[in-house]
Amino acid sequence: MYNLFEPGDLLNAPYEAFLFDTTRHNFPVRSHWHHYMEIILMVEGTAMIESDEKQYLLHPGDMAALPPKSIHAVYKAPDMQDDLLYYVIKFDLNRFRENIGYVPQLKSAVLQAMDNPEVSFFFSSQELAGFPVLEFVRGCAREAHSKHYGHYMIIYSYLNCILVNMLRIWRERGFTPSYEISPPSGSSIETITEYIDAHSDQPLKVEQLAIRCNMSYSFFAKQFRQIYGRSCKEYIEYIRVIKTEDMLLFTDYDMTYISQAAGFADCSHMIKTFRKYKNITPKQFRMQNTKNVRGSLMQS
């Protein structure tokens, strides 16, 4: 079974930007996560974006911002047969830690937005009207492709403009991030999710994970919830549910095999946990979604 984690070299490759064409790239984009923040700007077609437990329907001109470590996937919208064309930018949010005037650190602002369930990372074409987002995103892709002298600086400048515009839209919606300093990343608890992903098919105990991070159980549990927005136990369950979902969509494995491969104690435990997160049984989910997703694969 594949891991959800997508490795990336944040030190040497802090930015990626490209035009994604479903007629040329593997599609749909299966559930995965990475340390990059990701921006998707729709150009042609209609896509369904799943990010953690949220869904965004993107039409041409719409944009979605996917926070670091969010588990996300991209599919064609239900009953839509058109090919998709959209821009993708991946970048290291840690690079945006400077205070500019009265604007808070962009990293801190995004982290605060992630902690607020009322804040949406979907931006409609109407909200973006008057802002040259396509020009900036296209510029990022052009610079990333050409790699001309100073291309990282140009991409960084474009992304600053895009992120600040996101903050402006959030303010119009009623959310204003406070002027906080985000802590540096890189501690063991910041990377423990990679270990969880790679070992989710095995028994995982929170106490053992705390020891791996050289923390007491109570401090680890508190820090984990503060960073990831849910308890460690809930995070482990969610990873297993996402892997179950992937196997339901892309394999013909039976329920017993899937439950074992995903790390559940048994099939009934998988069904109960899957229903808890998806409000549907695994069997019902497979029947409702396999046709659309596999149809997209056959057309790619």
What is the strand arrangement across the widest sheet? Answer: 1-8-3-6-9
Main sheet: strands, sense, barrel: 5 strands, antiparallel
Number of strands: 9
Query: What CATH architecture of the largest domain would you give?
Result: Sandwich
What is the CATH superfamily label of the largest domain?
Regulatory protein AraC
Task: Identify low-pLDDT runs.
Answer: none
Which range does the strand content fall in?
15-25%
Q: Which fold name is given in CATH as the topology of the largest domain?
A: Jelly Rolls
What would you say about this model in short?
By secondary structure, the chain is α+β, with helices and mostly antiparallel strands.
Architecture overview:
This protein is an alpha+beta fold and 300 residues long. The chain folds into two domains: 159 residues, Jelly Rolls (Sandwich), CATH 2.60.120; 112 residues, Arc Repressor Mutant, subunit A. It is built from eleven helices and nine strands. A five-stranded antiparallel beta sheet has the order 1-8-3-6-9. Strands 2-7-4-5 form a four-stranded antiparallel beta sheet. A hairpin with a 2-residue loop joins strand 4 and strand 5. Helix 8 packs antiparallel against helix 9 and helix 8 crosses helix 11. The longest helix has 23 residues. The radius of gyration is 20 Å and the shape is globular. 32% of the residues are buried.
